[in-house]
């Protein structure tokens, strides 16, 4: 289950009044990238991809947080009955499907940590999990960007971890996975992406 586009837009707008920040523009750009790539695949639901992209960071509605934003997003989406949104609220932070491969501050309880570990261990990533992980790395608040730019940007903010390169490699793997399906570079689907080198 996931909400329609209007409801998702309303949720993001409301979240932006609670905790204004560049994260909402980033979410809109992730949604746009996800829709474009999903539609180019032909077999994915573009509206679903758009809505999941729009709401993947909805846990940021309650303030600045690291791991907490995943749990908060998951709980909020589940409270609305949007289990497919709840899922990407958790999975988008883990290109490597392992809770110990997270780069954020561990600002959650042991019980929440155990919950995420169990949740990740019991699922296989589907196309939407992979798509939102990829698109999270293809868009910042100003527009679309190449993976390398986003990786460096994130690493400068969060620091370098032993598994940083594994996370990058997984994201490249998802990029290749979708490019194999659409028959061209995902960058070719994202307008003005070249501008990212100037900002
Ligand atoms: Fe994000």
Q: Can you characterise this structure?
A:
With 199 residues, the chain is mostly helical. It has one domain (5-198): Hypothetical protein af1432, CATH 1.10.3210. It is built from nine helices and two strands; from the N terminus they run H-H-H-H-H-H-H-E-E-H-H. It has helices at residues 5-18, 22-41, 46-55, 68-79, 83-91, 110-121, 127-136, 147-158, 164-182, and strands at residues 139-140, 143-144. It has a two-stranded antiparallel sheet with strand order 1-2. The longest helix is centred in the first third of the chain and has 20 residues, at 22-41. Fe (ii) ion binds at residues 26, 30, 56-57, 136.
At a glance:
The protein has helices at 5-18, 22-41, 46-55, 68-79, 83-91, 110-121, 127-136, 147-158, 164-182, and strands spanning 139-140, 143-144.
Look at the structure and give the CATH class: Mainly Alpha
Label the overall shape: globular
The secondary-structure element order is HHHHHHHEEHH
Helix-residue proportion: 55-70%
Largest sheet: spatial strand order: 1-2
The fold-level CATH name is Hypothetical protein af1432
């Amino acid at each position: 289950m996931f909400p329609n586009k209007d409801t998702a837009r309303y949720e993001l707008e409301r979240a932006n009044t609670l905790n204004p920040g560049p994260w909402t523009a980033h979410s809109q750009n992730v949604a746009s990238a996800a829709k474009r790539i999903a539609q180019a695949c032909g077999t994915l639901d573009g509206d679903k991809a758009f809505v999941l992209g729009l709401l993947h960071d909805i846990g940021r509605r309650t303030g600045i947080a690291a791991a907490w934003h995943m749990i908060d997003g998951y709980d909020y989406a589940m409270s609305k009955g949007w289990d497919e949104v709840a899922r990407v609220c958790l999975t988008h932070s883990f290109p490597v499907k392992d809770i110990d491969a997270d780069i954020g501050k561990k600002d959650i309880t042991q019980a929440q940590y155990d919950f995420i570990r169990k949740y990740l261990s019991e699922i296989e990533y589907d196309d939407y999990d992979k798509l939102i992980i990829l698109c999270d790395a293809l868009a910042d608040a100003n527009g679309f960007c190449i993976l390398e730019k986003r990786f460096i940007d994130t690493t400068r903010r969060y620091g370098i971890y032993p598994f940083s390169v594994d996370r990058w490699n997984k994201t490249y793997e998802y990029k290749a996975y979708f490019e194999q399906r659409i028959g061209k570079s995902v960058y070719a689907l994202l307008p003005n992406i070249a501008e990212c080198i100037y900002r």
